[in-house]
Structures are given as C-alpha cells and as structure tokens.
Design brief:
Number of helices: 2
Helix content: 10-25%
Number of domains: 1
Structural class: alpha+beta
Largest sheet: 15 strands, antiparallel
Distance between the termini: 50 Å
Order of helices and strands: HHEEEEEEEEEEEEEEE
Strand content: over 45%
C-alpha cells in the first residue's frame, strides 16, 4: 500500500513539474500556429457551403468530389489533393450550411483527416456569420474543438470561442488579397504532454494573408500552471518576430 501511495505521489510531482515548467519558444509557436487556423479556414469556408469552388479561379483541382448528404449539408472529398487559395487540401470535409435570411448564415465544418497546407485537422469549427455588423464589416462568432497535427508531426488540441472581423476588404468580397482580419477570444490549447495552456487574446490579432503568414499585430496572454506569459507581435510589421515577456524570438 505504501508503495502504491509513493507511486501516485511521484506521478503527481512529475505532472506538477510539467505544468509549472517555463513556456518554451516551441510551445508558443505551436499555440500561434493553431490560432492561424481560425482565419485560414474561415477564408476557405466562404467558398464552400455546398458549392464547388473550381469555377472561381482560385483552385486547381481535377479530383474533387462533392456529395450531397442532405439539404444544406455536403461532403467534400479532396482525394489526392486540391489546391485552393494557394494551399493544398487533402482528406474529407463535411460542411453544413444554414442561411439566416439576408443577415448571414451558420456554417459548421467537420474535419476528417483534412490536410490544409501541411497541417492535419480533425474535429469541427462552427462559424456564426453576420454579413454586416454595425461597422458594415463581415463578422463571425466561432466555436472550435480541433485536434491539430502540425507539419513537424506534433499534435495539439485547441478548444475555444473566438470572434473574427474583416476590417478591410469588405467592399471587394471576391478579392482575398485586400482582406484584413482581426481575431479576439480565448481557448485552451493542450500539447502532447497533456498540459493545458489557457490562451486569451488581449489585443486583437491582425492578419493580412497577402502580406504575411503570421499575425501583423496583437497580443496573447498565455497561462501555464501558475505562470503568465505575454506574447506580443508588435504593431503592423511583418518581420517574422514576436516577444515573450519582452524577449524577442524569430520564426
């Protein structure tokens, strides 16, 4: 009995060590990578919702198959791969689309080993979209629960609620190159070690895909165990740099 108690105690001690260890540069980059998916998949979802995107001049795909499951619900099978908005897609994606009159729509994307630009997704994202908010901008409330496999094979989970607003490019909805998005919200990101990190966007993340693959600006607050870290992307410059508690890192 004493041996069993000692074993449990040691296990808890190791678990506490992992939880309270310093946030590494690699962990921060993984969390940032998972936040990029929110915006990337939203751009893609604008072209899905039960319609083929092959005739829109943004894709290269001869193998795409679209199956109607029921009214407003379609399955996209990318088979060996389809290029869409500059990214290669593989796997199967189920899209459920529910219009809300002229105000907007609700779209749920369910991922079955979907590979987007080298990142594998399983789980779902729901976008509750308002076509024009009080500022005249496209806006979405987002709920997500995803298992993410990064390009280097590392796995993590991101579960949370976020908001996404297109703050520029609303006058040209079919032109993605002038779009600027801002993201807010919070979630829990869990890595391979099982340690949960609480992530909160305390200054909106700013994205412009045509200029930068990383956030142009914004601040994340990450809590790991009893410690808090501030990740700062600066102010509207795509330099491939960010700071963790004032210390600068590069991609």
């Amino acid at each position: 009995m004493a041996v069993s108690m000692l074993f449990v105690s040691c296990s808890k001690e190791k678990e506490n060590d992992k939880t309270n260890s310093e946030l590494t540069e690699s962990e921060a980059k993984d969390i940032i990578s998972s936040s990029l998916i929110i915006k990337n998949m939203f751009e893609s979802s604008l072209f899905f919702n039960g319609r083929t995107f092959a005739n829109r001049g943004t894709s290269k795909c001869d193998v795409l198959k679209i199956f109607k499951i029921e009214d407003g619900k379609f399955k996209y099978d990318f088979d060996s791969g389809c290029e869409f908005l500059g990214k290669l897609y593989k796997g199967c994606l189920v899209v459920e689309y529910k219009p809300n009159g002229v105000k907007g729509y609700k779209s749920t994307l369910t991922f079955d080993n979907v590979v987007q630009g080298g990142i594998k997704l399983n789980g779902y994202i729901t976008y509750d979209v308002v076509m024009k908010n009080d500022s005249g901008h496209l806006f979405a409330n987002i709920e997500m629960d995803l298992e993410i496999t990064l390009k280097d094979g590392k796995k993590l989970a991101n579960k949370g609620t976020y908001q996404l607003e297109r703050v520029a490019g609303n006058e040209t909805p079919m032109d993605f190159f002038d779009d600027v998005y801002e993201t807010s919200g919070s979630g829990i990101v869990t890595g391979l070690d099982g340690v949960e990190k609480s992530v909160k966007i305390i200054k909106n993340l700013v994205f412009k895909s045509s200029e930068c693959r990383y956030p142009l600006a914004g601040i994340l607050e990450i809590k790991k165990g009893s410690k808090t870290y501030i990740v700062d992307f600066g102010d509207s410059v795509c330099g491939g740099k960010f700071k963790i508690n004032g210390k600068e890192f590069s991609w």
